[in-house]
Amino acid sequence: MSHAVAPKPTDPVRAGLDLAGRRLSYLDFGGPGRPLLALHGHLSEGMTFAALARDMAPQWRIIAPDLRGHGDSDRAADYSREGYIADVVALLEHLGLGPVPALGHSGGAITAYQLAARHPHLVSALINEEGAAAIPTGGPSPLAFVLGWPYTAPTREALLEALGPVAGPMIGEYLRELPDGSWQLPFHPQDTVSSEEQVHGDHWAEWLGSDCPALLVCGTRPPCVDGELAHAMAERRPRTRLASLETDHFVHSGDPVGFGRAVREFLDSLQG
Fold first, then answer.
1. Which of 141, 191, 211, 216 has the fewest Cβ atoms surrounding its Cβ within 10 A?
2. DSSP tag of 265
3. pTM of the model
């Protein structure tokens, strides 16, 4: 007799919900632990938190959506800040969760602290990985280079070649094979630029607009949140601590051990 094999606590189960005809996909890494919402940034998807999920288990159960237009989630008509926040609210309500700690990277971190400011009943603590409180406006998007990438290609090899030697290894594991055998990026280049452009501006009011405990995690190597800005963000917001790690903007992948330790120590401190 064969028996179904239950997923391990850190083997994610993919599920989704329908938002007026648009699918929002998410990964639930499972296990008996307390839920921890994890929001990725641009050029990424929920699976980017797989290593953190392994590190945090079994005390914490990471739930990581593919945000609109990323991964297995459908493309959206707009990539406004309001749209991202509404999707996360819908996910938490769908799962019957809240308040929960909300972790985010880059644009996902801005979504996390905006969620805390606008819906404080849903967020018990914040973990902000490289999400600045102010981003200069004007000038080209720093992600404009993706506009030169094809959205699809006949083969995986052709798509990797188009991405180049730097982006290829970073994004290669997230490429999707389509039913006709062609391959696709996990995000549309134009959507990515449109989305990134909308995180620019002064977000200080929302960074300071919640009073839950917070951890700000920043890298010290370019590109990263400016060190002076990071210290100001930690000093101006009550109940906020700063962790600086010797890596770049992608702290969770550049120093997964240090990042996991900082997150765990912060969350453990909330239980004391």
1. 211
2. H
3. 0.95
